[in-house]
Amino acid sequence: SLDDLRLWTAQTRKQLQAANLAAPSPSRKLLLAEVDSLENSRIVETLQNLVAKNNSALRNLAQLELADWQWQRGDSANAVRNIAQLQNATTKDPNIAIGQFVLAKWLIQRKNFDLALDQLTTIQRRYFYSALVDSAASLRVRLLIAANRYREALREMQGAEGKAQKAERSLTNAESPGHNGFDLMRARAAEAIAAYPVAIRAYLKFLQMHPHAPEAAEVLLKTARLTKQIGAMQLANNYYEECIQHFPDSPEAREAKINLAEMRYDAEDYDGARNLFLELVKEAPMMEKAPPTKWESRARKGAIICLYKTNKAALAESEIRTFKQRFPDDKVNLAEMQYAAGELAVEQKNFVEAEKVFKKLSSDYRNTPSAIYGDYGLGKALIIQNKFEEALEVLTEIPRRYPNNSFLPTYYIGLGDFYQTQQQWDNAITAFTKVTQDSAFDNNYRLATRYLINVYDRLGLYDRAIGLCRHYVARFPDDEINFTLRIKIGTLLMSLMQFDDAITHFRALKPLADAETEPEIQYYIGKSYFNAGQFEQAIAELLRVKFFSKPTKLPWDITALYESGLCYMRLKNYDRARQLFQQIVKEQGSESDFGRFAKAKIEELEGMKK
């Protein structure tokens, strides 16, 4: 029909005009300006004539094309007006939904995010049967993430995935592989709100579905970092190695190798760490005109500090000279290496040399952030020498001199540890809390949280200790001390005299325990009954340690046997109590610690006869 031809002509002219105006040469600009005005009039007139035909099947498409052209030309008011008229069209077709989607995109361009989100929500609700709903959901998620509304984005993705799975199951009557289009966005949103386990699962799912995607190396590196963040060190180690193996020449592989070296350093495997650092140094461009790279300086510094940690100061000083030649302006890493030299002197009890190194470090880097290493090192050296007043004069000035310094968490942990040894509990809590207020959830955060748990326990603030234990267990589910803290929650419940809760907690833990911890948990179950005054039940549980649990390094079986004897004494079954104490003396010997305690109880029982 003629209307079809007219619409096609207008669309073609739009495309040609867009191409012509994209990058005109200077000689064509004047001509294009005249042609542009003429073509614009033709396009607008053609589309307006089609829109005026109320009964035309092409009316809605023409109005959508007209609005799009007006927006391209900067006539946003008329563009939006035409989209609004399109929404009220009497003839319903897909162009109405497309128009609303286009309007949402325009609103995003104008940074009117709330109205754009409203438009996308309307599309999802009103046109739920349309394929456009998936595009609206995807755009809505991206918009929520861009606006830092990560929790809403995660809820949106979860809802979209649930609908997709339900629809597919209804068609196939089988389990659906799921909607994986959101995996990468879900991972990034979860990472942004520190929901690391969710982020890790989403990253891994993305890698499973798209192992050769351009983002694969970056995603695998992030997976390794987050896995390390939650304390799953062996898994993190595996992911870093996998990144190095599968993407050997990528920047991500280099970063993985540096992180792997630093993990070995943290595990005090200094030789293994140095070998990895040196591998990276060999990969650095060493041509005369090749500029030094940041990762090379980081690797060289790591290799040198490993030398100090293995008491090879002479070789370290030689490599520092090479470092200075290659990186003469890298004061930050030079300061860290000088600090390592001072720490070695402290470890060797050469305090005169240590103080000299740290004072020089403070002097060399005065009025720079790196001077904090000298002040902190000097304070530590003075503490070890029991020069507490001098040490505190230096240490307490550090937060004022170096506000927001990245080394402050390490400083506060050291200061809190000092206060703890001096039994200045309030000061210790203040210092450790300075670290836990940071939401980085790194190694310093974990260490400070552990210290706080112990301080609260020592002070009898068991509720606070339990709260921190539960937080730690939830935040770092794969941490190496996770199960130990779960046991500690039970012992803290015992300290609160919440024996029923403690027993329930321990019974839930027991199936998860290994052969070394199962007897300990079983002992605590019996001990809880003992403390609750339920002596018969306590005996039954305690004797299970002796007769059903496997032997362990710690003498839980003998402890349980001794406690069973005490239970029999409380029940006035003195003969049975004596038998158990005699069994301990026979097994352990009368001169052992347990033997002496048991022998004392036997003598006490004999005295009760008289």
Structural class by SSE content:
mainly alpha
Which strand-content bin applies to the residues?
A: under 5%
CA-based gyration radius: 36 Å
What does the main sheet amount to? Answer: none
The CATH class of the domain at 511-610, by name, is Mainly Alpha
Low-confidence stretches: 27-35, 164-180
Task: Please name the CATH topology of the domain at 511-610.
Answer: Serine Threonine Protein Phosphatase 5, Tetratricopeptide repeat
Tell me the number of helical segments per DSSP (H or I, 4 or more residues long).
32
- Give me the count of strands: 0
Instruction: Give the CA-based shape.
Output: extended
Mean pLDDT: 86
Question: Top keywords for this entry?
Answer:
0% strand; mainly alpha; 610 residues; Serine Threonine Protein Phosphatase 5, Tetratricopeptide repeat; single chain
Structure characterization notes:
The chain has 610 residues and is an all-alpha fold. Among the domains are: 91 residues, Tetratricopeptide repeat domain (Serine Threonine Protein Phosphatase 5, Tetratricopeptide repeat, Alpha Horseshoe), CATH 1.25.40.10; 100 residues, Alpha Horseshoe (Serine Threonine Protein Phosphatase 5, Tetratricopeptide repeat), CATH 1.25.40.10. Helices cover 76% and strands 0% of the residues. The protein contains 32 helices and no strands. Helix 11 runs antiparallel to helix 12, helix 26 runs parallel beside helix 28 and helix 27 packs antiparallel against helix 28. The radius of gyration is 36 Å and the shape is extended. It starts with a helix and ends with a helix. 38% of the residues are buried. About 4% of the residues have low confidence.
